[in-house]
Request: fold
Amino acid sequence: MACVVVRYHEIALKGGNRPRFVRRLIANLRDATTGLGVLGADSRQGRIVLRLAPAAPVDRVCDRVAHTFGVANYSVAVELPADLDAIRAAVLDCARAEPFTTFAIRTRRADKSFPLTSPQLGALLGAAVAAEVGGRVDLDAPELPITVEILPRAAYVSGGKRPGPGGLPVTVSGRVTCLMSGGIDSPVAAHRMMQRGCRVDFVHFSGVPYTSRASIDKARDLVEHLTRWQLRSELTVVPFGEIQSEIVARVPRSHRVVLYRRMMLRIAAALGRRGARALVTGESLGQVSSQTLENMQAVAAATPALVLRPLVGMDKNEIIQQAVRIGTFATSILPDQDCCSLFTPAHPTTRATVAEAEAAERQLDLSALVARGVAAATRERFVFPPELAVAAAGPAAPLTVRG
Reply:
């Protein structure tokens, strides 16, 4: 039977929590491959085996597996009895499937009752391939690596391993709320939190009614793309322009940007779903004038919520490289009208203190502004793959199905 053998690494180090992490990875793989002919997903000796129907689109299944956090690597394999003749035949079929000059047989015998050791089995199978198909053994960099895994009750033969995204299964680390600007940084920050096992909700602050909806469209496109990695997302859009105009009218010019960000954190915290454990931003230390240590401290003091900055030690080139790798860069650089640049002074302070920010905010009705932002917010759900849409639909928010 055709199957995909999924391997994990970091999860295996979790001790007593390992079963919970494995169950979540299995559930995420089942959801990700919904509608693609996956007959079952079972845990087998440190692996997860996805059994495929005869007509299953293998390439699409692999693409979904390759976007599932917690997967270290995976292989398209054939499942067969742990019988030497059956394994030998499967290895020869694999070798005949594509041309090669060099090959290697990589064996792992998890079932110690199998009569041959891993080196003995590898030598026997390698000799069979050389004799019946041809090619030269190269254990370091073979053109065709063939993997043979002997587990209790079954063996798996595959043409090598493909890399997964690593990390931890989404949801095992809890829920966070990411401030999604529509630029390069915040989507990368969200992706990094997903890789650490977080379910990420998104809040976008738009300059409406003083700007166009271009930034909202970008935020939606970015969340749509990132949903491929966590399967279910929520995007909340807050029209922030009028709140900004009130800040502009009442506070010192030099502190506007700091007070914008403090207000955003308050509103994002108020909007966060029950159980959200932290706020996430795309800030990188020193990247722009508002992202100094002093300003970060002044901004974070606006809320008791934990503020995570997964990009804080990365430079712009590193962030861009990751944005390209995860596929968000092209969208992020599209022109838009960002609320953060609305009413921005020419010389914003780079060394704001908490005391200065609090003194400036005494001119504002903070509770009323937060309530206004929360009341005007709109929420949208995103689901991937489309087959999950019916299960995810509910009365809380409009549902957007992304295929």
The chain has 14 helices and 16 strands. The chain has two domains: 2-163, 174-401. The mean pLDDT is 92.
